[in-house]
Amino acid sequence: MKKNTGINLCMIGTGYVGLVSGACLAEMGNRVVCVDNNLEKIKMLQKGKMPIYEEGLEELVDKNVKSGRLFFASSIKEGMMHKGHRAEAVFIAVGTPPREDGSADLSAIEKVSREIAENMTDYTVIVEKSTVPVETCLWIEKTVTRHNKKNIPFDVCSNPEFLREGVAIEDFLNPDRIVIGVPSKKAEFVLKKVYSALSKYPMLVTDVKSAELIKHASNSFLSTKISFINAVANICERTGANVEDVARGMGLDKRIGPSFLKAGIGFGGFCFPKDLEAFYWLAKQKGYNFELLKNVKEINETQKMWIVEKVQQEMWNMEGKTVAFLGLAFKPLTDDMRFAPSTDIAKELIKRGARIRAYDPVSMENAKKSMKGIYFAKDAYDCVKGADCICLITEWKEFAELNFSRVLKLVNHPIMIDGRNLYDPDKMRTMGFTYISVGRK
Ligand code: UGA
Predict the structure, then answer these.
(1) DSSP code of 439?
(2) DSSP assignment string, 168-196
(3) Which domains does the chain have, with CATH numbers?
(4) Of the residues 167, 172, 331, which should be mutated to test ligand 1's pocket, given the most ligand atoms within 8 Å of the CB?
(5) CB-based pocket (< 6 A), ligand 1
(6) Which ligand 1 atom is at minimum distance from the Cα of 275?
(7) pLDDT tens digit string along 384-404?
(8) pTM over 0.85, yes/no
């Protein structure tokens, strides 16, 4: 990456998006001050400790702090004017959690917009990075204008992120595309400078509203792909076809593409479920009934219960039966338990009388906070001890490489329900497992 070739930036919010983006923007040669109003978090970061688990993040933060391109501060004022360096662009990456009705809570965005307005001293490009409904930038602009007592010139832009947890740094530094929604040439020039180190990747320059919509439309489309293939998996099960072959056959069509066609126990995480809801809600507010998104959500809810039904079919009576969960996180390489399918699955199995033993390589601490009435095992082998049935919930590499002869000696009954199609059905059956997977014979 280039050295100090970019500009002075302020990143507000050191959550997942803010921290990864801040570290990567520094790596790209910008001087970045990451700001958070949570003082504890800032102190932790200043000591080099990461508040989230993301592969390579600690090293990247450490490297850029040492190179003098990445800093942490606890106030927007300090972030926007840091040791004599004025931020030309201020990124907003604060939380937009879902409200009861599924709409996004944008109160944090309003608050920081006001503070940005109060601390601007010269032309500033305000960049919205959190996932927000279309027209949020318009509201930011109104808020900033209202509190911009000195009439400092500014522009509000949209620059959605497309990071996947677990491979976020890789995604940021090698993007499929960079999307910037800009209201002026001046703002476009500044953002192009911010991203100059990634000039070999496609950059799409649009109006602000289109950029805002691209994020929600992309996440909702990807969720639709997953629910579609999960629905197809159900048809495969009922007809004796194999969903992996069907997905391969579909994916070879360039118009469809092979990714996000992996059948499983449904999508989770803090993005897809939340964004799907928010997009549906937004469409409704604009007078359009986006019923498809409702169906995508319903298929996902049903798919989470697929594994519960399979356990029930194998166990007959659930009362007093022990079910081992291999994995808890919503996908591998993350400790994120938000909207993880494992939570709903465990709740339902417990309700039906089962006892749960669970193990996840990294999300145990987070899981302990959100899941009750579960035995958290020391490792995968401790987890399957005395199990009447094993459920593969998250496709971690270490579960693919288990010593199955050891597993077979530890379980009560060798029943494996593979919610992620991780294992080879023939091999599992040859070893002696009663093996059930998603949409495969
Ligand atoms: C997702 C998007 O992929 C990112 O582009 C986006 O930036 C991010 O949301 C966000 O909005 O911040 P992420 O939630 O980290 O990223 O996770 P994904 O890797 O997309 O997986 C989401 C869920 O879908 C997981 O539960 C995964 O197991 C499931 N999935 C994914 C499937 O069931 N099948 C597939 O084929 C792919």
Answers:
(1) T
(2) HHHHHHS-S-EEEE-SSHHHHHHHHHHTG
(3) 8-206 (3.40.50.720), 215-302 (1.10.1040.10), 305-437 (3.40.50.720)
(4) 331
(5) 131, 161-165, 219, 222, 226, 260-262, 264, 267-269, 271-272, 330-331
(6) 11
(7) 999 999 999 999 999 999 999
(8) yes
